Every structure is written in structure tokens, then in C-alpha cells.
């Protein structure tokens, strides 16, 4: 047996998705082959996906070895902690009143908190700090405006690369603010608040 | 002749000031991202999609096309001078091009790459113009069953030609098709898999998927790798080719153009595959084959001509059949649909400005690129001095603003974050994102055609094998799949892709 770990995980992903989707698809009428209902094509696609997942799984049992990089305890721990913290923060935000519960803010808060917790571990930083900075941008864009959103998310993302210097980051923020103002506000005139709204 | 009248019309569209300007912008951006490793045409085009919405459809497509073929020009520059492929399609150019630079013939290599690309681009433009209306005529006789089979063929080939395991690639195609099912069912209006989220009733955001999986995921992967950029060694030297070099380059360019044009049309083909195909061919048949490995000019001329020809002929299936041949073309479909144009055989007649204007602009763009590239090589190389730590926050911010401005909704921003993380996971698991994107675009169209075909045939699935066109498509798809099951064919492909990147 030569296990191909990457293929096995891929197979689990495909099979898991197909099974959940097939279950969700029971809500939709299938119809007949002649008059297909909304559920017919999804059913075909998901069964095919399930079948392919099983093939990948079977092939993955023999065509390895192709191990993935082993995660350290801290990496696994903080990944789980991040998931829990993210869900908890999102739920808590949705339960509160005011700005934090409005619109998609709970989702954004959940994503941001979750990603920030995981990025405590250094090796996760490129992935989760960029994701956190991206979520942060979405969170503060509407209340605080474009300029602050650019500034704060760039500063946060800068921690993902250790070669950054404070001066360089400051210059980058100024440059990007000017560029984005010229392109998106002056030239394209997109409807987005530029400065904080009070 | 009709063709000339149409082309004249195309030039009158492409030569308007606005279109010229955006063609130029597209070419400049294309060259820049071609030079810079770490950001490719797919990421850039998805990044710039939102910016084009304010423009008319023709202008938007002209600019996006300029980015794609511009990247092929730019990619060769760094490949030759720094042994650093700016794009996947110029990986093979490094093999001979850098050797030529080491011998002091960098100038000649750059010239032959640019001139060869220009020649190939011109030929491919004519090919698109000539084959467009012809293929459209054929396509108009297609029934729903034929369309369904054609799309199926496109999906199969794009999966077969993708890197790595074929089964996994097909899995990703079907995964893309499944994602395409999210949203309102067109015929009954029922909400499918939307979980009551109003933002999902139009389907999962196409731009979010593209930006997340190609833009954000790419940044993250680049950040994890340590930066390896060499400084330019030696001088560019004279841009002139010697008579001998010229004589050797001409047949290579001709062969490269042919290979590139053919492989470009193929679903799943495109620039990267064709430059590799051409390199393999030159190594076998060219007069200078004994020099390969020491800087043979054929090894630069052929692949560079091929990748440029392919980047243009890959528009043929899109413009005539509405079927994207690769991930970049899938983005073009997205751009057209957002502009309210349904890609398909009726486009040539319904949107003559777009079709002929785009073709004319390709030729103009190639001419511009020649001017942008050759005399200003030094400037482009300086671009490499910009460290990645300044590039990635910029890309991130542009992604974020772009995706927000689509519908002025932060939901799209969060959706992009999720697809970014998913894209990272996929690349770690060697699941290909490109077939998924093509599946996502084609999925809803396939469902439409499947339903219509089955309605017409009164529920008899035999219609797919009884109609000759459909049967042929399915036959080719089956052959392609079976060929990949044979060990030696698969090994050949793996070796080819491994060497070609």
C-alpha cells in the first residue's frame, strides 16, 4: 500500500461535498427526464462528483506516496481555535444589536477574528493574515471609508512579510491611497464612501 | 470580398480614440504582468473585470484581450534576460533564451521573440477573422443536443490537458459545474442551494471565485516561497540579428505559428501548452537542433511565436461557439455576460462591432506591443526591482475594491476570502483551479441545453448519439479519456507538462 495523502484528502473533500449536496438536493423536485425539474441536473452532477471522488479515493490508496507537510501541534491547535473563535465571534455579533449585527457584519467579524487567531502561528501568517486583512477591508469600508480601509488592511497584511520596514509600509499606504483615489474615485467614480461617515 | 469590408469595419471600431487608448492600456498592463513573476493574466484580468464595467462591451473586451496577449510578449523578456519565466507560457523560452543571453546574444533573442510574436499574432488575427464567420455558420445548425456534447467535449479536454491527475481534474470540473447550480433555477424560478441568502440567488459570484482562487491564493503561495530574483547579468547587446540567425529563425517562426494556432483552438489548450509543443518540435526538426541546450535561436523563435498565436486563436471557440477554451477565456465569458451579451454563434451577427473590432484591435495591439517592448526593454526590466512585499498589498487592495464595486456589497468581499482560502487548499492538494472555473462557466449553459435536448427528444437520451454532430463530439471526448488511461500516453503528457511547467 502506497497511500497518497493528497489524493485521499482531495477525495474526502469531493465525496463530502457531493454527499451534502445530494442531501440538500432532496428539497428540489427532480421531474422526469423529459421535463427536468430544478433538481435533475444537480442530481446528475453530484452523483458524478461522488463517483469521481470514490475513484480518486481508490487510486489514492495505491498511487502514492505523496505526503503533505506535517502540521505541528501549534498549527493544528490554532487552526481549531481559530475556527471555534471565528464561529463564536460571528454568532455573538449576530446576537448583539447595532452596527455589529447589521448586514453582513457578523460574517465579516467571524472571518476576521477566526483568521487573526490562526495567524498567531507564524507559518499560517501568509494565508490567514492576508485573509484577515481582506475581511478587515470589507468590515471597515462602509463605516470608515476607503482611505482608512486601505491603510489599515495594508498595515495588517504587511505583517505577513518580515522584510517590511515601517517607512516602506507608510509610503506604500500613501501611494495606494493616492492611486486608488485617482483610479476608483476620480476616474471610475464608484459609489463608495471615501472618508469616515459620522 | 465580405471579409475585407468586415475588417475595414473592425478597424474603424478599433481605431476610435477610446478603444485605442484601452487597447494600449491593456497591452501595457499585459507586458507589465508578463514581466513580473507571481502574477499572471488570469489574476490580472479578474482583478480588472470590475473596472471595465463602466466601459462599453467592445472596449472592455479589447482591453482584457490586450492583457492576455501582452503578457505573452512581456513573459519572454524576463525569461531571456534573467532566466526567470514571467509567465507559464515562457518557461521553455528560458531554456534557449537565457543561454543566448549568456553568449551575449540577448538582444537578438529579444528581437526574434518580439518579431516572431508579431508575425504569429498577425497570422492568428487573420485566422480568427476568416474562420469566425465560417464556424458561426456551422454552429448555427447546432441543436441543443449538439451544444451539450460540444460543451462536454470542451470540459473533458480541458481536464485531460490540465496538469496532474486526470480524475482529479475531472472532479474539479464537476465541482465547478456543481457550484454553477447555485442560484435561481431559470425555468421554474426556484431557489437552489441559496440557504436563504439573497446575494446567492444570482449564483455564486464569478469574479469572487476568479479573484479568490487566482488572485488571493496566488499572493499567499508566493509569500510562502522565499523570494528568488537574480539581478540582470551582462548587457542586452545589439538588438540586430545576424543574417544567419535570421535565416534560421524564419522557419522556426512559421512552424511555431502553425503549432500555436492549432493548439490555441483546442479546448484546454492555450499559450502554455503551445509554446511547449513548439519547443519539442523545434528540438526534433529544426536545422539547429544539435545546438539545443547551448542557445539555439530556433528554441526562442518557435515557442514565442506559438504562444502568441495560441493566445489569439483561443478566442475562436469563444467568439464563434461561446465556449471558453481556457481559464482566461472563461473570464471573457464572464465579462461578456456581465455586460449583457450571451456569447455564442449569434454574436458575430448581433455584435459586429465587438467581433470585428476585437479582431482589428488584436492586430493593432500586436503592433503596439512591438513598439512598447523592443525599444523600452530596459524600463521593463527595471520593473523587477519592485520587491514583492510592495506588490502583494497592492494586489490585495485592488482585488478588494474591485470585488466590492461589483454590486457595492461587502458579501462579495467575504465570499472572495472564502474562495481564497479554498484556492490555497486546492493548490496544496494539487487540485487544479482552471478546470473548475471553466466548469463553473459552462455548467449553467449545459443544464439549459440538456433540458432543451431532452424535452425535444421526449426524454430519450439516445438523441445524443443519434445526431451525427453530437455523436462525433462524444466520440472525441471518449477517445481523449481513453487515451489518458493508457500508461505511455499519460507518461508522455506528464513529462511534457513537468518540463514545460
TrEMBL record, chain A:
The keyword Membrane applies. This is Tripartite tricarboxylate transporter TctB family protein. It comes from the Bacteria. It comes from Neoroseomonas eburnea. The chain crosses the membrane at residues 7-24, 44-64, 76-96, 102-121, 128-156, 168-188. Keywords: Membrane, Transmembrane, Transmembrane helix. The keyword Transmembrane applies.
UniProtKB/TrEMBL annotation, chain B:
Keywords: Membrane, Transmembrane, Transmembrane helix. The chain crosses the membrane at residues 20-39, 45-69, 108-130, 150-182, 203-223, 318-342, 354-378, 390-407, 419-443, 464-486. Residues 20-437 form the DUF112 domain. It holds the Pfam family TctA. InterPro entries: DUF112_TM (IPR002823). It comes from the Bacteria. The keyword Transmembrane applies. This is Tripartite tricarboxylate transporter permease. It comes from Neoroseomonas eburnea.
Amino acid at each position: 500500500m502506497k497511500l497518497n495523502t493528497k489524493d485521499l484528502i482531495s477525495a474526502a473533500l469531493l465525496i463530502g461535498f457531493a454527499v451534502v449536496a445530494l442531501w440538500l438536493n432532496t428539497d428540489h423536485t427532480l421531474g422526469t427526464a423529459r421535463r427536468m425539474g430544478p433538481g435533475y441536473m444537480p442530481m446528475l452532477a453530484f452523483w458524478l462528483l461522488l463517483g469521481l471522488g470514490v475513484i480518486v479515493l481508490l487510486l489514492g490508496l495505491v498511487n502514492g506516496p505523496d505526503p503533505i507537510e506535517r502540521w505541528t501541534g501549534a498549527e493544528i491547535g490554532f487552526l481549531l481555535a481559530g475556527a471555534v473563535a471565528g464561529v463564536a465571534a460571528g454568532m455573538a455579533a449576530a446576537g448583539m444589536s447595532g452596527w455589529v449585527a447589521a448586514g453582513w457584519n457578523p460574517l465579516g467579524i467571524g472571518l476576521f477574528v477566526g483568521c487573526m487567531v490562526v495567524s498567531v502561528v507564524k507559518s499560517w501568517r501568509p494565508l490567514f493574515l492576508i485573509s484577515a486583512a481582506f475581511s478587515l477591508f470589507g468590515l471597515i469600508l462602509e463605516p470608515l471609508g476607503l482611505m482608512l480601509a486601505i491603510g489599515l488592511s495594508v498595515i495588517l497584511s504587511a505583517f505577513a512579510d518580515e522584510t517590511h520596514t515601517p517607512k516602506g509600509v507608510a509610503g506604500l499606504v500613501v501611494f495606494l491611497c493616492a492611486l486608488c483615489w485617482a483610479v476608483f474615485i476620480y476616474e471610475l467614480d464608484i459609489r463608495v464612501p471615501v472618508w469616515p461617515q459620522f | 470580398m465580405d471579409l475585407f469590408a468586415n475588417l475595414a469595419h473592425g478597424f474603424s471600431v478599433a481605431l476610435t480614440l477610446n478603444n485605442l487608448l484601452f487597447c494600449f492600456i491593456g497591452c501595457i498592463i499585459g507586458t507589465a504582468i508578463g514581466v513580473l513573476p507571481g502574477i499572471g493574466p488570469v489574476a490580472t484580468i479578474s482583478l480588472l473585470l470590475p473596472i471595465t464595467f463602466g466601459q462599453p462591451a467592445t472596449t472592455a473586451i479589447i482591453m482584457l484581450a490586450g492583457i492576455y496577449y501582452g503578457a505573452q510578449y512581456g513573459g519572454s523578456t524576463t525569461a531571456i534576460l534573467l532566466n526567470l519565466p514571467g509567465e507559464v507560457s515562457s518557461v521553455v523560452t528560458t531554456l534557449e533564451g537565457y543561454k543566448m543571453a549568456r553568449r551575449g546574444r540577448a538582444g537578438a533573442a529579444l528581437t526574434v521573440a518580439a518579431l516572431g510574436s508579431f508575425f504569429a499574432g498577425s497570422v492568428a488575427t487573420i485566422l480568427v477573422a476568416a474562420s469566425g464567420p465560417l464556424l458561426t455558420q456551422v454552429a448555427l445548425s447546432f441543436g441543443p443536443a449538439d451544444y451539450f456534447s460540444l460543451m462536454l467535449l470542451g470540459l473533458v479536454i480541458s481536464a485531460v490537458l490540465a496538469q496532474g491527475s486526470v480524475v482529479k481534474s475531472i472532479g474539479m470540473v464537476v465541482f465547478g459545474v456543481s457550484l454553477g447550480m447555485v442560484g435561481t433555477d431559470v425555468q421554474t424560478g426556484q431557489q437552489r442551494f441559496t440557504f436563504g441568502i439573497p446575494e446567492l440567488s444570482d449564483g455564486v459570484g464569478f469574479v469572487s471565485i476568479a479573484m479568490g482562487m487566482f488572485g488571493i491564493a496566488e499572493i499567499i503561495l508566493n509569500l510562502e516561497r522565499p523570494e528568488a530574483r537574480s539581478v540582470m547579468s551582462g548587457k542586452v547587446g545589439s538588438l540586430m540579428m545576424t543574417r544567419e540567425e535570421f535565416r534560421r529563425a524564419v522557419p522556426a517562426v512559421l512552424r511555431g505559428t502553425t503549432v500555436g494556432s492549432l493548439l490555441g483552438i483546442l479546448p484546454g489548450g492555450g499559450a502554455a501548452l503551445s509554446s511547449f509543443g513548439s519547443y519539442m518540435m523545434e528540438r526534433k526538426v529544426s536545422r539547429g537542433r544539435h545546438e539545443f541546450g547551448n542557445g539555439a535561436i530556433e528554441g526562442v523563435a518557435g515557442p514565442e511565436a506559438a504562444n502568441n498565436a495560441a493566445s489569439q486563436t483561443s478566442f475562436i471557440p469563444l467568439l464563434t461557439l461561446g465556449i471558453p477554451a481556457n481559464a482566461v477565456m472563461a473570464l471573457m465569458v464572464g465579462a461578456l455576460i456581465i455586460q449583457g451579451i450571451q456569447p455564442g454563434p449569434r454574436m458575430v451577427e448581433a455584435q459586429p462591432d465587438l467581433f470585428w473590432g476585437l479582431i482589428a484591435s488584436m492586430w493593432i495591439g500586436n503592433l503596439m506591443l512591438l513598439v512598447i517592448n523592443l525599444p523600452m526593454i530596459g524600463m521593463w526590466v527595471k520593473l523587477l526591482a519592485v520587491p514583492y512585499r510592495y506588490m502583494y498589498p497592492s494586489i490585495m487592495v485592488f482585488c478588494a475594491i474591485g470585488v466590492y464595486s461589483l454590486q457595492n456589497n461587502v458579501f462579495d468581499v467575504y465570499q472572495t476570502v472564502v474562495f481564497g482560502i479554498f484556492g490555497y487548499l486546492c493548490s496544496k492538494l494539487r487540485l487544479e483551479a482552471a478546470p473548475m472555473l471553466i466548469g463553473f462557466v459552462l455548467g449553467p449553459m449545459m443544464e439549459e441545453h440538456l433540458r432543451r435536448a431532452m424535452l425535444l427528444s421526449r426524454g430519450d437520451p439516445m438523441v445524443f448519439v443519434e445526431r451525427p454532430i453530437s455523436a462525433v463530439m462524444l466520440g472525441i471526448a471518449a477517445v481523449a479519456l481513453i487515451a489518458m488511461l493508457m500508461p505511455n500516453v499519460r507518461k508522455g503528457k506528464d513529462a511534457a507538462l513537468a518540463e514545460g511547467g
